Structure formats: structure tokens, C-alpha cells
Amino acid sequence: xxxxxxxxxxxxxxxxxxxxxxxxxxxxxxxxxxxxxxxxxxxxxxxxxxxxxxxxxxx
Length: 59
What we know:
By secondary structure, this protein is mostly helical.
């Protein structure tokens, strides 16, 4: 469990640094990428929840 939290924190930091880098070049693109990243994060959390509960997610 501790490794999972550490990997999630490292991944979040990496994405945040990437978004800041894009923001410095072109802010509207950073907003679009932030929205897409949020959608992906919600989907991943939902998939993790389904697998932890022993259910398969259906498309």
C-alpha cells in the first residue's frame, strides 16, 4: 500500500511539472491538458475501485 501511495504521489508531481511547463509556453493548452488529465485520473480511480471490490468494469 505504501508503494502505491508513493507511486501515485510521484506520478502527480510529474504531471504537475509537465502542466506548469506547458503553462509557461501556452496557457490555453495547459488548461486543455489539465482537463484531459483530470478525466484520465477519474477513470483510473474508478477502474482501481472496481478491481479492488472484485468487480469488472463494463464499457
